[in-house]
Design goal:
This protein is mainly alpha-helical and 302 residues long. The chain has one domain (2-301). Helices cover 79% and strands 0% of the residues. The protein is built from 13 helices and no strands. The protein has helices at 2-31, 37-58, 66-91, 96-103, 106-117, 125-142, 155-174, 183-205, 209-213, 218-245, 248-251, 254-270, 276-301. The chain is globular. It starts with a helix and ends with a helix. 47% of the residues are buried.
């Protein structure tokens, strides 16, 4: 009985990460109809960070040390700051499902950075094969040497997503080496760090940010509430639970399920119908991500 209950929790949390994180791309798309991307990221993470940090204090958590604040805030700048700002920016230029697909290359960036700067663990041949397959898929998707009018995805926003994925990978890999506060407060401070970074960037790069606030609709409020409550609180809590109760290879499957969810939701709700070229590229990229995930498991075992 206890085993079946544990199995149910596993699949419930896995489903939450699949659906909620996959749906946040659509939530950002709705918010961008009235708000600029950096301001959207500011509201999402500043409000969410404040609410979650106050909640930790009400639960009896103490105030973290200055070193812990700085460590968590730094990782937050890399993840929810640069990483999510890049995603929000790109969603304004391309279908949300394809942005999710570009984000799915994260395991590849983590393998490379981990090998050169952190664990120095040589990737397995399966991982190398996965990286190669993923690169082929990205070439098909981006069509970098084709004429501009033949490209479905502009190169500059795609490049920004790759930069955001690199900073996300670096922050994820560096985090275990830093002095962090308790897990829930770490999440809250990371959101605050990312939100503050987004605010500074929005003030510098979005001159009409204050004007856009007066154009917010009920849809905007609902989208932001969904991103804060479901995307940041529920989705991340489910992900943390999986990190401690599920095999890493199973948890990592979110990287190639999220794009599928994002593409389906984009087609259903905002009529983002992918072309045959995009579908082929998506299949190739996701096959590469699956191989990378399997390769990391093989490396750990060997």
């Amino acid at each position: 009985m206890q085993q079946s209950s544990s199995s149910l929790k596993l699949w419930v949390n896995l489903l939450l990460v699949y659906v909620i994180w996959g749906s946040t791309f659509l939530g950002v798309r709705y918010a961008l109809e009235t708000l600029p991307p950096l301001l959207t990221n500011t509201i999402r993470f500043l409000v969410g960070g404040v609410l979650l940090f106050v909640f930790t204090l009400l639960r009896g958590y103490g105030i973290p040390s200055l070193k812990q604040w700085l460590s968590a805030a730094w990782v937050g700048v890399l993840l929810s700051g640069i990483g999510n700002c890049a995603v929000a920016y790109a969603i304004g230029y391309m279908p949300s499902g394809l942005v999710a697909l570009l984000v799915a290359t994260l395991p590849g960036w983590m393998v490379g950075l981990d090998y050169y700067f952190f664990a120095r663990q040589k990737p397995s041949w399966i991982t190398v094969l996965g990286l190669g397959v993923g690169l082929v898929g990205m070439y098909i998707l981006l069509n970098p040497f084709g004429q501009e009018h033949t490209r479905e995805i502009p190169l500059w926003p795609a490049f920004m997503v790759f930069i955001g994925s690199i900073t996300w990978a670096w922050g994820s890999l560096q985090s275990p080496y830093l002095d962090m506060p308790p897990r829930m407060q770490t999440t809250a401070i990371q959101m605050l760090g990312g939100g503050f970074f987004s605010l500074v960037m929005s003030l510098a790069l979005e001159p009409k940010m204050s004007e856009s606030l007066s154009h917010m609709t009920n849809q905007t409020y609902f989208s932001l509430a969904y991103l804060i409550v479901m995307g940041s609180f529920v989705g991340y809590s489910a992900y943390v639970w999986l990190l401690h109760h599920a095999p890493p290879t199973l948890t990592a499957t979110y990287a190639y399920v999220n794009p599928v969810v994002a593409i389906i939701l984009g087609a259903l709700f905002i009529h983002e119908v992918p072309s045959s070229r995009s579908l082929v590229a998506s299949a190739v990229v996701l096959a590469g991500v699956v191989l990378i995930t399997l390769g990391r498991r093989f490396s750990v075992k060997s």
